[in-house]
């Protein structure tokens, strides 16, 4: 009985704290709604129950709210006025733990647009002609100089001793059949001697 009474007291205390917290959040949210130059407000990190209460208060007030932060201790709620609802890019920035900078985002968007236009222009131009994109000599010019490759190309001649051996250089002039017949004859001779 004593434990049950203590539990009931704790539950009532928790309930009272939640009601007080909700009232406090309702006041803060209504101040935020009346603040003209404030499109969004970031609240202090809070636990899961408090966050859910704040989300509920924001929803009732007609605001948009999101939670950010990686671990339970640092998670916080951000409340946005409907006309300043965050873009996906803005949400991504907060999720990465960055501050949202509209000017930087606009710059990024312009760069992306420019890249897309360039890509489109390249596609219209058609495929590049086959072949290497640059001359290997340009890449190695600092090592070989500009005319070394041309000089090397002129001095190269086919090596006469490479590849086919001219008949004049062969030591053994017999055909394969003659050589095989000679080997067989030697083998027969050896077998005859052994017998």
UniProtKB/TrEMBL annotation:
CDD domains: R3H_sperm-antigen. Residues 98-113 have a biased composition (Basic and acidic residues). Residues 19-82 form the R3H domain. GO terms for molecular function: nucleic acid binding. Residues 98-139 are annotated as: Disordered. Coiled coil: none annotated. This is SPAG7 protein. It comes from Vidua macroura (Pin-tailed whydah).
């Amino acid at each position: 009985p004593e434990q049950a009474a203590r539990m009931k007291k704790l539950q009532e205390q928790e309930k009272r704290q939640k009601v007080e917290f909700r009232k406090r959040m309702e006041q803060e949210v209504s101040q935020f709604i009346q603040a003209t130059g404030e499109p969004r407000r970031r609240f202090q990190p809070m636990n899961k129950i408090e966050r859910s209460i704040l989300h509920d208060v924001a929803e009732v007030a007609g605001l948009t709210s999101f939670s950010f932060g990686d671990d339970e201790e640092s998670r916080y709620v951000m409340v946005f006025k409907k006309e300043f609802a965050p873009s996906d890019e803005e949400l991504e920035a907060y999720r990465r733990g960055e501050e949202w900078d509209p000017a930087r985002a606009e710059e990024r968007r312009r760069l992306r647009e420019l890249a897309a236009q360039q890509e489109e222009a390249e596609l219209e131009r058609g495929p590049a002609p086959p072949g290497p994109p640059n001359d290997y000599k340009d890449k190695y010019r600092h090592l070989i100089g500009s005319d070394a490759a041309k000089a090397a190309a002129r001095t190269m001649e086919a090596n006469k001793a490479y590849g086919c051996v001219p008949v004049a250089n062969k030591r053994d002039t017999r055909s394969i059949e003659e050589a095989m017949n000679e080997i067989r004859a030697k083998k027969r001779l050896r077998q005859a001697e052994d017998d």
